Amino acid sequence: MKHSLTSRLAILSDAAKYDASCSSSGAGKRDSAATKGLGSTSNGICHAYTPDGRCISLLKILLTNFCIYDCAYCINRSSSNVQRARFTADEVVWLTLEFYRRNYIEGLFLSSGIIRSSDDTMGQMVRVARELRLTHGFRGYIHLKTIPNASPALLAEAGLYADRLSINVEMPTESGLAAYAPQKHASEIRHSMGEMRTHIDAGKEKTLSGKKAPRFAPGGQSTQMIVGADAASDRDILGSSSSLYTGYRLRRVYYSAFSPIPDASSLLPVKAPPLLREHRLYQADWLFRFYGFQFAEITADRPDGMLDLELDPKLAWALANRALFPVDLNRASREMLLRVPGLGVRSVTAILAARRHRHLRLEDLAKLNVSLRKVKPFLYTTGWSPTRLADRQDLRALFVPPPQQLSLL
Amino acid sequence: MTMLYRIRLPDHASFEDWRPLARQCFLAGLHPHEVEWCTTSEDATLFDLATTLPPAQTGRISPVLRNTCLALLKSMLRHASKDRFALAYRILCRAQQEPALASITVDPDIAQALRMDHQVRRDAHKMKAFVRFRECGADTENTRRNFLAWFEPDHYILSTVASFFTKRFADMDWVILTPKGSIAWNGERCALSHKPCEKASVDDQIDALWQTYYVSIFNPARIKTKAMRSEMPRKYWKNLPETQLIPQMLADAEKRVAEMAAQQPKAPPKFHTSLQKRSHNDTPPQTG
After folding, report:
1. Which residues form the Elp3/MiaA/NifB-like radical SAM core domain (chain A) (predicted)?
2. Cβ–Cβ of B171/A37 closer than 8 Å?
3. How confident is the model at residue B281 (pLDDT cuts 50, 70, 90)?
4. N or C, which terminus of chain A has less Cβ within 10 Å?
């Protein structure tokens, strides 16, 4: 049965929506001024938002949702009865360019089910990227999901055209992956990531003669883990992120709350996606990437290894480490200010700039759109010193949201 | 009693328009409270004020600003607020005594200017995101394709976003119309105008494909409309081709999720069974 382009677009974007990545940044500056081409890079523009709260930055589609793998969590696993379809490389190129011209998107995020062999699938994807770049002079963003075990030559060519490459680790632990994706192997995925890291690092260096190395995915690599399908704790998940960020220098790790899918495998839990848990994991991720926290610190005080769902991880950490507070608003280091609940990176920068010229009082923070209620217990300055935190047993109660009556339905 | 002066500027007046007048006021020794800044569309206050500025005071030196302050004034003067010129003049005068003024983020004037600067930059960012080009037929003499867009910015940002669009959509001809002016590009020249435009709409059949994509990429099991609205406020919805579908998507979401929960496991499709058989006969399974 041959589907129309519209219905194939519906099938193949429906199949791609469980991939959380949408970033279109990190590609470096590039535009089509004074060229015959189309497109430019930006520092990440989201062109639309859907009611699930996610943004649309890239045309995120699968080349095909036929797949020879049978990964339990995946809507496209071979044992699923979802409708199957495939695009030709030319159709993906056409859709990308037409969508781009109307300013719907920043570029393309192409992924695929695995058909025939890894090399065959990867070859098709590389062909899309090559035609966009070479035939059509496309200078927008391209993110390719690489296929495990594809040949090094194809990987090198993918890196030449793509801004970012990614490969999903899928499950936070090796045992989780073995249970849900019997045909995928954690060691192979890590090996591919290691290889990509080597290529990406090499792409940034100059050779001895000063010549530039061939381009290789300047936007780096990213990955995704599914949260809530297996029994892994937040400590396991963040431990895994830690090794991915430091060991493989990933740009981003995405956490995707396990979401019910049509025709789901009986192995999977039937429940609403743990959206709050996903949110807390992203907050912890942010603390690591922008606030100087180590992942181990964030979960150190949690007995079951799970993040507090009621309080954000920074506040939970501060309450568990009360001896370090309050800090002097006018003298505390940048590192310490970043650890004060209620202060973000932007407000800390503004405080540092202002206090070089003026002594700051608590009221001044209100002008920086800082919530005084939240920061008050953790800061002191002229005219304000909080009651000793250690004396307040009920401090947590001050921050926990009030209990809500459950809905009857 | 001190003499008061009124200065009228066009609604779209920018830093470049304001600068020579502010300089003249400063050299004449006028205090911020002695100048009333207003725009041409604004009603004048009850009193008739002098519109000819007094001559420069002898020996008064030209005002000087640090780069950070200059950049802040340039940006905040793109804001649509009618108070922007008065605030900018106050900052200009104060900065002569307090050279580091622009860095004092907690100062009320600077906090206000920074808030305006932030709103201007957000408006520009949203314009880059939410402009939608629609194709309006190929020009027969011209091989380049022709597009039209309508957008309603809150502030006077056309000059800051123009280069983004010309560098990105270099190989097509396009016009962006707005109530605050227009930007047009023909591959060689970018024409900016401050003349307000009427809303124009063109039908583009690709919008239907985009709507298909928008509906399909939405996950009905996660509803977070607050997150959506904070990044895509309702004021933008009327000009976006996809947002009219949101009510229906939300109405169907619950039913779709309930169906997923209720479904019984089905027998796998035929090709799965044959794949399984094959992988038992020869490993590895990657070569199917």
Report:
1. 57-284
2. yes
3. low
4. C
